[in-house]
Specification:
The protein is of the alpha/beta class and 470 residues long. 49% of the residues lie in helices and 8% in strands. It has 2 domains: 15-50 and 152-467, Alpha-Beta Barrel (TIM Barrel); 51-151, uronate isomerase, domain 2, chain A. The chain has helices spanning 15-28, 43-46, 55-59, 64-72, 94-103, 112-123, 136-147, 154-160, 177-185, 198-201, 208-219, 226-242, 262-273, 279-300, 316-322, 341-347, 364-373, 391-405, 423-443, 449-467; strands spanning 33-35, 163-167, 170-171, 191-192, 195-196, 247-252, 303-308, 310-311, 330-331, 355-357, 379-381. Strands 6-7-10-11 form a 4-stranded parallel sheet, covered by helices on one side. It has a 3-stranded parallel sheet with strand order 1-2-4.
Length: 470
Amino acid sequence: MSLTLHEDRYFGPDARQIEVARELYRAARDLPLICPHGHVDPRLFSDPDYSFGTPVDLLLIPDHYVYRMLYSQGVPLEDLGIPRLDGAPVETDHREIWQTFAERFYLFRGTPTGLWLTQELAEVFGIDERLDGDSAQRLYDQIAETLNTPEMQPRRLFERFNVEVLCTTDTATDTLEHHQAIRASGWDGDIRPTFRPDAVVNLDSPGWRESIDRLSEVSGVAITGYPAFIEALEQRRAFFKSLGATATDHAALTPYTAPLSEREAGAIFERALRGEASDDDARAFTGHMLIEMARMSTEDRLVMQLHPGSWRNHNALIFEHFGRDKGADIPITAEFTRNLRPLLDAFGNDPRLTLILFTLDETTYARELAPLAGHYPALRLGPPWWFHDSVNGMQRFFEQVMETAGLYNTAGFNDDTRAFLSIPARHDVWRRAGANWLAGMVVRHLIDEADAHEMMTDLAYGLAKRSYRL
């Protein structure tokens, strides 16, 4: 069966709305991609001999979006080649793994992963045949052959995809050697780091004490107490900024913030150094450090991102056998109005701060996030995140947020992915969903076509560029 991408996908169904959506989409389709938040490995661009490996290395083993669905249908992760922590055997025949995946590709029908993968197969690899059990090995060969061509070198793809800037996500202790190598190479692709300090700020992070030792090493600051810890973080932020960083990124279970006195913060930090910090200590310290990070952002002007609300590694069996980030992260309810109040009291009215919020709890959109962003100058709303990075998730976001917050208190789109080759497809979904939403307002005479075209350009390009100061 043939693989086709319909010209009007994600539009409609009203004929006039489709007509307007086409015009809006065509006007924005070829705008450069701004990728301000993601997890692409910078080695792709620093290593001139970088190889994506096999189709399985590229599309399956590193992508928990893919294998979480297969696991939910009873496919053991071992059968998909996912390495076990104990070194126990897993499937190593990549053709066999691909066959397992292809026979079950129908499971992704109507899902964002299915949309991204289908567009990637068609537009990046030139595939015009549907993936299933019968076509699996033919398409494996076609993808493998394409991967071995010079056109699939990451720097060439960066230019082919029309990426203007791409930001990676890097731990506070990262030496950024790959970013330095990219700059030294003379290539003019704009690849920037993003400062993510979770491993040293969240006391309950696995290996926290080792991360503190590493922070001491890379910063040159002997971290013997809380003041030195703050000094080391400020030093690292300055280092990231010197290599082009414009943002920080913070994950927390909840949006809880509350200030501690320096004495209180120091006492908790001392307990943590001794391995005696409690769960309450960890919660209090993270809540305090989010305010400290906002304070630092007012001084160095790094945009602050906060994405709470994910119970990481929910499946204990998978975590025990395969480690973290293996598709078992589950959303929880979140409360922003009370939890963020201390941070906003301190810095929410400060024009030097931009705080971009993400959530997995859609019930907060209209009740809390839109009103908050519609008032506080420091706040912007990030796009539908993670499980809601989908056609329906985007429509819900537009419907629940925009009337109260206003388009210009949102931060545009970010692809938030490790899968570099899927980036154009992810942006295309956003641009088409945005065009469809705007077209709906045009046909209902809420806005005119001139307004819609300006809004479309901002949705696709301008909002992200301005929000992240790129």
